[in-house]
Amino acid sequence: ADFLRWYRTNPDALPQMMMEAFRQFNTENLGNLLRYLPKEDFQNLFKIIKSLFLSPEAKGSNFVKDYLSNLGLLTESQLRKVLEGESGIDEGDFHQQNLKSLLIKLSDELHNLLAGKESFDHEESMRLKSLSEYVDSSIKTIESHQIINFVIQETESKYLFQIPILFPDGVRKSDIFVE
Fold first, then answer.
1. Given its phi and psi angles, is residue 89 left (phi above 0), alpha (psi -120 to 50 degrees) or beta?
2. Angle, vertex CA 113, rays to CA 138 and CA 50, nearest 5
């Protein structure tokens, strides 16, 4: 119920989350915090976030499938297939990096830093808390889309995907329903 309420109160949370990611994970904005967090994870986050925007470069690719996988909407489904020993899925497929998995890892690292004995100045502490809140909110946003799709699929045999599209004048969102 909490995830449904989360989605209903802000149906545009997913594209907003992706746009905010560019500000949150900007190395200039992160500043000194990068010395406490794995820089490679931020590079991977940027790469994945860029892949989630439909742009002219995405023409001819299997964008929707890649989008679902890169966002992390298929993580639990892939885990189930690995556990059931389904052919065609191996553990290497499951361990691919996606936004949800990287955010969960980052959330753990941020919570450990905040609970740890490291001494941060006030600005660093506030920035860590802000980043942690954003990351936790982003995970909840992705999970709310998983729940919404489960409900829509069960009731209407459809799926809803919100895809941000890059236009010359900015970013817009497209709601795509798939039967």
1. beta
2. 35
Chain segment 108-133, per-residue pLDDT in tens: 999 999 888 777 888 888 999 999 99
Residue 85 gets the label, from left (phi > 0), alpha (psi -120 to 50) or beta, of: left
Nearby residues of 174 by Cβ (< 8 Å), 6 or more positions away: 54, 162, 163, 164, 165
Distance CA 115, CA 56 (A): 44
Residues 81-94: what's their mean pLDDT?
Answer: 59
Tokens at residue 132, please? 């942690």
Backbone dihedral angles phi then psi of residue 159, each to the nearest 5 degrees: -130, 150
Dist CA 52 CA 142 (whole Å):
13
Would you call 159 helix, strand, or coil by DSSP? strand
| pTM for the structure as a whole | 0.84
Parallel, antiparallel or unpaired: strands 159-167 and 170-178: antiparallel
Q: Supply the pLDDT for residue 78.
A: 64
CB 139 within 8 A of CB 104: yes
